[in-house]
Amino acid sequence: MEEFKLDKKVVFSWGIYDFANTIFSMNIISMYFAQWIIVDHHKEDIWYSLTYSLSMLMVALTIPVLGAISDGRGKRKPYLLILTLGCVLATFLIGGISAWISDVNTRVFSALFFFLLANYCFEGGLVFYNALLPEISTPQNIGRVSGFGVALGYAGSIIGLLLVKPFVTGNLFGLQFGSGGREKAFIPTAIFFLLFSLPTFIFVREKANRNSGEKRIKIKEAFRKVWNGIIDTKKYPGVLRFLIADYFFEDAIATVIIFMAVYAQVVMNMGDEAKILFFWFATTFAILGSLVSGTLSDRIGPKKTLFFVVSAWIISLSVIMLSTRTLYFWIMGPLIGICLGSTWTASRPLLATLAPRNMLGQFYGLYSLSGRTAAIIGPLLWGGAVLYFKKDNALVKWAVALLKKAGFNFSEQVLNTIQYRFAILVLIILMIIGLLIFIKVPDKKVKDYEG
To answer: SS3 letters for 276-343?
Structure first.
């Protein structure tokens, strides 16, 4: 029996923010903005990549400091509100720029600037959103509450596409209402993000923290506090080890999210319609995975749950790397979805068991630092592997010859795209390294998270 009654309205109001911000991530980061820059305006991919990486670097450098400041003042919601409004405003301005500025270069580079700000605010807000989790859950249900938020997030990615699609096509149930175009996705996305995030700011209340006052923390002191948090991790056994392991996990996962569509097209020869269906299919199982893993985390603990999830990642990526038939790719889709939904569901409460309550903002900032830095490095590792491990590479020739001696045969199609299989192998290695580091993370009970 649970010690405290769960306030369902507050939990829903917290989780709906996951729903709201994935409308942004799906429509802006994954779907329409990159295509608007690269396809519609014929700009090189590197412009989008550099802008995205720079925004992630800014997050990595500043968000842990903001987390430390929020701990010092005992507040998270004000920072979440400011960053949410910043993301909404910047996204709205991208839509405005697409209509107001006629010069192509000025339009594109102005939009890229505001995309940098929007993505920075989006990623930064997640630190303070995650730090609210112990405020609205009990020790007995923190895993399920985390899973509920992740599930709502994946639902937001599906519903967000449906909500914005009519503006892009200019067609709603057969009725024409405008010319459509990818640029028409930006302003509706900003509005939907704002609307669906409102319950979080209206109904979620932060508890008074006796260990924090309304004192102001200077920037130098905030940097010192973050640095001391890293140096003094011996006081909080397992935190640094978990963050390092999580870096390797996030390295692989972030790269999968970015490049799986490319892999499906180049290696599996899947058309756009098939890819859309595949990702919807995988996302549905991601929702299921986040819910199931949340319950599992409450029962057996977040560490054991995350161990099983990462092991499943390694298995699914290995099958994808070795398979040549699209059927196996489709079979692995649900497993990848379950893994994706489960990883963050188990990670958030696990960190809460390792860090003291009054320092959660700082340690969730370090958690964000680990993931956001991986989002810079991971894609570079993938790109390097694809560039280097082509079929005429000496190491590749040696590996192929060795496998042929063992009885394996390779078609010309497999050899022509073998560099992508080596890229998947790089991700598998990253996962294995992370798992070996993760094994020695303390297996604490969630009831200890209040510190």
So the answer is: HHHHHHHHHHHHHHHHHHHHHHHHHCHHHHHHHHHHHHHHHHHHHHHCCCHHHHHHHHHHHHHHHHHH
